[in-house]
Structures are given as structure tokens and as C-alpha cells.
Amino acid sequence: MNLLPVRGLGDTSMPILRPEPDYYPPWLWDEPESKSGRSRTSPECGITWWCLHTRSRQEKAVARDLLKHGIAYYLPQVVREHWTPQGRKVRSIIPLFPGYLFMYGSQEDRLASLRGGRLIAALAVGDQPALEHDLRQVRIMIASGLGIQPEPAAPAGARIRIASGPLAGIEGTVLRQASRERLVAIVRFLGRGASVDLEGWQVVQLLD
Prior knowledge:
Elements: E1 3-4, E2 16-17, E3 23-24, E4 48-54, H1 59-68, E5 72-74, E6 77-83, E7 89-95, E8 100-105, H2 107-114, E9 119-124, H3 128-143, E10 149-151, E11 159-162, E12 171-177, E13 180-187, E14 192-197, E15 203-205
């Protein structure tokens, strides 16, 4: 078992399990998003995004199956921290959207993903450019290394675009929690998202 040390937490910390690859293949996100808003996917090419609805706690197992068969996927994952009764701080890697991951493949790949018995459904996505845009935003947020939290539903608030800082260009909704303001980026297909503290970055309000 490969373990990664947790630095700066002293002797009371537990090691963190090495995460599953959160996407495959390595070039999945290399192609930039089209300025026209069009996705690289189309019905004609036969390769599209699918939303895989998994059975309980099967997200990583499905990702391993897809990796084994060379099928492209994205499984957003974040770090969760908690304390054990013995006073040790444990960090684990968990799916950002429990019960879901995203496959980039053909109808044949969809059928192959269903054969393992780990899925409830492989859901077709109607608005491909919107899903790819939302997933790219989530990936940038996670890759920033900032503290990302799952958000169960789209919040009410002002729509903004971050104009400075490590998340410049990300669009989302302002969520106010006590004295803090957080930016929530939503994956519209799921109605769920991820949030991060705004950290005082310059923002631009978007008009509907």
C-alpha cells in the first residue's frame, strides 16, 4: 500500500492514502475550451461525456475499471480531514460528488462500463459544452490546492467571475457564510458544486 506522509501535523497525524488517478488519460484536459463555447464532443464523432451513477462507495472502483480498459474518465476528488477518538488527525481522499463520476467515451464504452455491476445507470448528457465547461472549472479549483468543499445544491446570490488570483476566470455564485464569502461553481447537470473562500480576490459581477 502506498502512503503519502502528512507534513506539518506532528506525531498525532495519520498518513494519507495515495489517491486514485482523478482523470485518464493524461491528455484529457490538454485541449483548451473553445472560445465559441462549443465542446470538442459531437454526436457525429461518437465520443461524448456520460455521467456514471455508481452504487454506494463504488466511485473509485469504477474509475479503476475504466482505467484498466483504457476508457477516459474524470473523478473529482478532494481531501477530507477528521480527528479520531485517539486524537489523531486523519486525511482521506474522497469523491467530490458521491455516487458520480464522468466518462468520456463511445456508446460501446458506455455498455462496457455497465457490465461490472458497479453502476446504477450511465446517464446521457444533453448539453455537452455546458458539462465540459463546468468540469473544467471544478478541475481548476481542485488543482489550485485551495480548500475545496462540496456544495449539495446551487445557492442564491450574485453571479461573479474571479478577475485575479489562482482561480482567475472561474465563474460562479457568491455564498455568504458568517463573516466569509465563498465562490460556488456548479456542475449544472448534477445540481451540485464545489466552493472555495474568495480570499479577497478581485471579482467582476456578471449580469443575467
